[in-house]
Write a structure and sequence with these properties.
5-stranded antiparallel beta sheet
Amino acid sequence: MRKEITTQIEIAATPESVWKILTDFEKYPEWNPFIHSLTENPVVGEKIEAKIQNMNFKPVVLVFDKNNEFKWLGNFLFKGLFDGEHRFQLKENPNGTTTLIQSEKFRGILVGLMTKTLDTKTIAGFNEMNQKLKELAEKG
């Protein structure tokens, strides 16, 4: 089974400013209500350690393109049970703002059982994180 969720927010800041906050993982515990921690220095093809909503896991970094995109693939217990491809995209707008798009593609046996949680808690977590990131970036 598959499911995708996508959220986005417009931020009155440059992609560089938003990226700087998004990739300052050391400060996540100070402001990020959704992703409580990520290890520093993500490298494409290597695992990072993440703590999201009281769940610890070690996803593989798929993309780390400065000021543009950060994407990883995580698995719960083993591949095919509950996999999530998490993505942050920054789109520069003509008016000088940045659109942050946070999405995740889920697949696996347990996705059907998790649909209600994904549609409520996960989307709420994405939106809350997006809002906090917007507030920080717009403060300068």
